[in-house]
């Protein structure tokens, strides 16, 4: 599920947009203050929606400048109650991908988000899975952390893919054995614990929660 960061100081509008984006299959992270949005930059964000005029001292232009210092390619949509060519020009010069004037239809915004996501993340949606700073290439069966490959065994990769494809789902050790090792495997289910331990060591940011007496869940 892709993360949309929504920076909008009108709380009712922000909640409305969140509802539409959530229904479209996105995870929405809301900010009502520019300073809070800037503090989040560098964490997992697949697209930003920035209102230009905010209630604090940090505006949308400040935020996109800060974003571009860290992430050159993450898409940004500007929103504004001012339908002025200058705002659009400034936004484009700063690296925005789209501009929508208030008041706008939430459905129109979702369509624009969908179009940008398809254009920018087409390959990622079909063949790659992102988790925190890790990028998992399913076709090549490799894991990258900031462009550096993490060497995983076949079983380690299969278990990792199972967990990231079913985030927040709890798996018993027996289920993991059947799905990763196969139903023909005979032996102790403690091999699951050993494999989890090895993955945790190689990928420290992987938040795998132990469910004592049962199994594991990726958060």
SSE inventory with pairings:
Elements (H helix, E strand, L loop, with lengths): L2 E5 L3 H13 L3 E5 L2 H7 L6 E5 L8 H11 L5 E5 L4 H9 L4 E4 L4 H22 E4 L2 E4 L4 E4 L2 E3 L3 H11 L5 E3 H9 L8 H13 L5 E4 L3 E4 L1
Parallel strand pairs: 1-2, 1-3, 3-4, 4-5
Antiparallel strand pairs: 6-7, 7-8, 8-9, 10-12, 11-12
Protein architecture, described:
This protein has 219 residues and is of the alpha/beta class. The chain contains eight helices and twelve strands. The protein has two domains: 123 residues, 3-Layer(aba) Sandwich (Rossmann fold), CATH 3.40.50.2300; 87 residues, Winged helix-like DNA-binding domain superfamily/Winged helix DNA-binding domain (Arc Repressor Mutant, subunit A, Orthogonal Bundle), CATH 1.10.10. The strands form three sheets. The chain has a five-stranded parallel sheet, sandwiched between helices. The protein has a four-stranded antiparallel sheet with strand order 6-7-8-9. A hairpin with a 2-residue loop joins strand 8 and strand 9.
Supply the key terms:
five-stranded parallel β-sheet, four-stranded antiparallel β-sheet, Arc Repressor Mutant, subunit A, 8 helices, alpha/beta, single chain, 219 residues, 12 strands, Rossmann fold
Number of domains: 2
In DSSP terms (H or I, runs of 4 or more residues), the helix count works out at: 8
Low-pLDDT stretches are none
Mean pLDDT: 87
Name of the level-1 CATH class of the largest domain: Alpha Beta
Count the strands? 12
The largest sheet, given as strand count, sense and whether it forms a barrel, is:
5 strands, parallel
Task: Determine the CATH topology of the largest domain.
Answer: Rossmann fold
CATH superfamily of the largest domain: Response regulator
Q: What sort of overall outline do the alpha carbons produce when their principal axes are compared?
A: elongated
Q: Provide the helix percentage.
A: 40-55%
Strand order of the largest sheet: 2-1-3-4-5
